[in-house]
Amino acid sequence: MNPGMENNFVVANTERYRALVPDGVELVAVSKFHPAEAILEAYGAGQRRFGESRVQELLAKEEVLPKDIEWHFIGHLQTNKVRQIIGRTALIESVDSERLLRLIDSESKKAGVVTRVLMQLHVAKEETKFGMTPEEMLAFFSEGRYRTLEATHICGLMGMASNTDDTERVRRDFADIAGCFRKIRETATDLVGFDHLSMGMSGDWQIAVSEGSNMVRIGTAIFGSRY
Ligand SMILES: *Cc1c(COP(=O)(O)O)cnc(C)c1O
């Protein structure tokens, strides 16, 4: 494919997904490993919310791309990279431990900003995926440990289903994540603005939405495969 054709492909897919995703569900276009030019094509089709999984890559793109882009960080965030990313994201979706959360909080306070985050829940069968278990997550919220945060706003949960063709397993994983999300909202009644449930990717977003997702992270279906 020549570059022009590839651009048309990104524009067409962005338009398609912006129309497909139901009202009330936010579309995050996952642009990791794709060049800034591809992001500009999606931007031209009206997309403003993009997801990146590596700190260096996000910062490099942020520097050269329009300032009204909302950057979502969706990868595993190493503690030694936290300081660099504070103040540069609209949402860090992948806070996978309380230790990381506390570090984001202290660095945000130092920088004089409030960082919006999602806590990442691990329900998938793969050990390789990051996140707190439902037990750890529920304990964190029912014990009110979020109350000591000074510069971090927990806006909801992010989770991934098992990587499998077994759609019933995928549905069950999303139902488990949604169940945990609802339980937190019922028990932690003083939590304000805890309303984002980010689940669903290119291959499983429809199942995720039917289980209550209100934020989907679509990469391959918009930008093509990553090499
Ligand atoms: C890469 C990635 C996505 C996008 O996956 P696709 O299958 O390409 O849509 C979504 N969420 C996370 C956390 C990712 O790392």
Fold and architecture overview:
With 227 residues, the chain is of the alpha/beta class. It has helices spanning 3-20, 36-44, 55-64, 82-85, 98-111, 134-142, 167-187, 205-210, 220-223; strands spanning 26-30, 49-52, 70-73, 91-95, 115-122, 152-160, 196-198, 215-218. It is 42% helix and 19% strand. It has an eight-stranded parallel sheet. The longest helix has 21 residues, at 167-187. 39% of the residues are buried. Pyridoxal-5'-phosphate binds next to strand 8 and helix 9.
What hetero molecules are bound to the protein chains?
pyridoxal-5'-phosphate
Radius of gyration: 17 Å
Average pLDDT across residues?
95
| Content of β-strand | 15-25%
Label this structure with key terms.
single chain, 227 residues, alpha/beta, 8-stranded parallel β-sheet, 9 helices, 42% helix, globular, binds pyridoxal-5'-phosphate
Brief rundown of the structure:
By secondary structure, the chain is an alpha/beta fold. The chain contains 9 helices and 8 strands.
Secondary structure elements and pairings:
Blueprint: H1 3-20, E1 26-30, H2 36-44, E2 49-52, H3 55-64, E3 70-73, H4 82-85, E4 91-95, H5 98-111, E5 115-122, H6 134-142, E6 152-160, H7 167-187, E7 196-198, H8 205-210, E8 215-218, H9 220-223
Parallel strand pairs: 1-2, 1-8, 2-3, 3-4, 4-5, 5-6, 6-7
Helix pairs in contact: 1-2, 6-7
The site of pyridoxal-5'-phosphate has 13 residues, from strand 8 and helix 9.
